Amino acid sequence: MVPKVVLWKLRLSSMKANPYPSVAKTARTATALSSEPHGQPSKVEEMKGLLFTLSKDAGVSAREAMLNGIFGVWMPRLDEGGNWKLDSWITRGRSPLIATFADYLTITPGDKVFFFQDRQIYGIGEVIQHPKAPPRRGAILNYADADQSTPKAEPTEEQALFSNVHDWRAIRIVVPFVESPAFFSGGIDMDEVLSSPGSEACWGLKTWQGKSFTYLGETETELLVQAFLRRYYPRADTLMPKRTGPELTEFISSRYSGVPSMRNVIRTNPSRYLRSGELKDENCLHALLIEQLVENDRSFGPAFYREDRGLVFHEVPASPSKPVVYIDKIDVMATRKWSEELDFAAHYDILEAKKDKFGGKGKSFGSEVTQIAKYVDFVARNYAGGNYGAISAYLIAKDFSSEFLGAFVKAKTTREFTPDVAAFSRSYILNSREKNATKIWNDLSLLKYEWDETEGRLVLREPVNIRTNVKAPPEVHQDYIA
Question: Residues 6 or more apart from 10 whose CB is under 8 A from it?
């Protein structure tokens, strides 16, 4: 039996008028529709969690972090000379800081907040939607230009949102939150959560080694909330936050400096992140795609804008349990929801992103698409109940070789069952009793990216027109702007 796996959720639905959670709001809404007094169905809500790790040298306890209502992690850790500035977010050919940057972009209002210290998990908070921040953006800048590797001006404590720890200038991005339903004075041992029924779906708690913070899936977030409520029922010692919800909002408003943006980072210093129009690092491409998906702006075109856009994820584990270093991860995954009332995944979009040209000499088409085909199989088994029709896959690259494009067109249009067709096509049966029970999946699309220097934006374009089997010139096909 395949264990239930629940997506790491980033809710993109509209926030309620009241941004401050209450005990009633945090109660889990039934997954089945129920009748309201006026005959209206109740909204089906899910929850996602965020777990911060507090190291011994953090200089703050979990309780202190909770009560402050604002928290962030070092980006980067200071060197021995105390330098917190960088020439670029890409250092020595590596970009773990941009990967963390991309993770921050996915944090949304409504996410539950927990802290981990000395084998104990503390909570519970909830990310708020600040009135000045764009919709669905939970993480904000600690001070002006904090998302730039070297800010224009030296920040002062009076300008920063979070400055009550040492080396606070290295904390570039922060997350504001309030109690939901309360900040409990005691913690929960991780083993208590991992021993609970349903813990086989705790991907976040099992794959967070070496991370400063990690996401928690719906099931493990729910398990954590239930563990706290069971432990501290009927009465518990709770902690009073430093500021009430309205006071926290007012404080942020007095020092608000915007939200992190990879587009702005590249616009400011394009030569640091681009080489002849090609991004120097794939994490930059991940961050740009995530920013587009989370904002879900109509101007981005039909490639990824959808009225039913539901969830966005970064580096989702996509392999059976194994040592963390060997776990396969989907670059970016997004979902589509049935409706605002039924806010759960009805369709899955899988994005595999390559910063350079795709399709090398000496490699077959089949071998090149194996990775994304493996991800499609994993999502079908673990998320979609075997329904491949609920999945769309995209390969995004700077360019594609002519050999790869030719094989792609042939594989998409031929009626023959060749090795190339077998590489990314799947046959499946959902109901053996229905007519034409065997269904075929081959919903793989290709997109080329370009950086528009004039607009300072990422543009996505289809490199080939399947209907005419020819390369698609830029003037014929609509650009998809990120």
Answer: 48, 106, 107, 108, 111, 136, 294, 311, 312, 313
